[in-house]
Structures are given as C-alpha cells and as structure tokens.
C-alpha cells in the first residue's frame, strides 16, 4: 500500500490543493495527516500546490533554493503575515 492511499486528502477536491490564494483549508487537512512526512519528502520538486503541509514558497526555501520570482517572495511574506504559515517553518 502506498503512502498516498493513507493520505488524509485522498478524495478531497484537487482544486483545494492548487496554487491559489487560500491555502488554509488544505493546510488544515495536512496538519492531521498520518503520512505528512513521506508526502513532504516526495514533493520537494513540486512547484505548485500544497504538499506535505507546505506551500510552494516554503518548498523552495527548504530545498536550499531561493524563490525564483519576486511574486513568490512577496507571497511567502503575505502568508506569514496572515498567519497561514509560521515564520519558523521556512528560512527567510
């Protein structure tokens, strides 16, 4: 059985995990997911959407990459300011 079969988001609307302004509902599902760690590990190269409780802007920093556009850097600051993600969850 794959970790994907055990994911809390299995059967959720895919649009909830897309790259759009309100990541909150998807992040809430991820927070209680039993396979958040393997999901996060498998998603390191994903450029879009919520994976393993992270948003694209966080994954870029976790991978040692700088966000590739000013739009992404600005979006990361907005997410932190809104309290959607914590400042400690990714380097600045």
Task: Report on the architecture of this protein.
- The protein is mostly helical and 92 residues long.
- Helices cover 37% and strands 0% of the residues.
- The protein has 4 helices and no strands.
- The chain has helices spanning 24-31, 36-42, 56-62, 70-81.
- The radius of gyration is 13 Å and the shape is globular.
- The N and C termini lie far apart (37 Å).
- The model has no long low-confidence stretch (mean pLDDT 78).
Keywords, separated by commas or semicolons:
single chain; 92 residues; mainly alpha; 4 helices
If you compute it from the alpha carbons, what radius of gyration comes out, rounded to the nearest whole angstrom? Answer: 13 Å
Biggest β-sheet strands, sense, barrel? none
Mean pLDDT: 78
First and last CA, distance: 37 Å
Report a brief summary of the structure.
The chain is an all-alpha fold.
